[in-house]
Amino acid sequence: xxxxxxxxxxxxxxxxxxxxxxxxxxxxxxxxxxxxxxxxxxxxxxxxxxxxxxxxxxxxxxxxxxxxxxxxxxxxxxxxxxxxxxxxxxxxxxxxxxxxxxxxxxxxxxxxxxxxxxxxxxxxxxxxx
Length: 129
Description:
Layout: E1 3-12, H1 13-23, H2 25-31, H3 34-41, H4 47-65, E2 75-79, E3 85-89, H5 91-96, E4 100-109, E5 112-121
C-alpha cells in the first residue's frame, strides 16, 4: 500500500498551562518523553508554547497514523541542530508505520500552537517469484 496521509491539530496554550499547573510532573511524564521535557523547560518563558506545539504534533501524528492504541510517548518530537522538527516513533506508533516517512511542521502564535504531519506510505516490496 502506498499513498499519503495528513494529520493536523490545534492546541490552546492556556489549556496546556492549566494542565501543567494542575497536574505538574504527572502531566509531563504521561504525555512527553524526557528529551521533550528537557527541551521545553530549557527556556522557561517558552515552556508552555513548546509543550503545546509538541502536543499538537503528537495528535496530528495520531491522526495521520489512523491507528488505535498509540500512546502519547510513542510519538516523540525531536529537534535537529538546525531547529527543524522531526518525529521519532516508538512502540505501537512504530509498529503502525514500518514502511513510511513522516514530516512535521510546528507553529505557535498567541494562545495557539499547531502542527501538521504528512505521512508517506512507501509501497510494499513485490514478492519474489
